[in-house]
Amino acid sequence: MSMLNMSDVLETVNMLTEENLDIRTITMGISLFDCVSEDENRFAEKIYDKITSKAKNLVKVGEDIEKQYGIPIVNKRVSVTPVSLVGGSMSEEGYIKAAKALDKAAKELGINFIGGYGALVQKGMTLGARRLINSIPVALSETERVCSSVNVASTKAGINMDAIQLTGRTVKELARLTKDQDSIGCAKFVVFANVPEDNPFMAGAFHGIGEDECVINVGVSGPGVVSSAIERAGDCSLSELSEIIKKTAFKITRMGQLVMREASSRLGVNPGIIDLSLAPTPAVGDSVAHILEEMGLEQTGAHGTTACLAMLNDAVKKGGVMAAGSVGGLSGAFIPVSEDAGMIDAVKAGSLSIEKLEAMTAVCSVGLDMIAIPGDTPEAVICGIIADEISIGVANTKTTAVRVIPAYGKKAGDTVNFGGLLGYAPIMDIKPLSPEKFIMRGGRIPAPIHSLKN
Question: Residues 426, 347: contact at Cβ < 8 Å?
Answer without folding.
Answer: yes
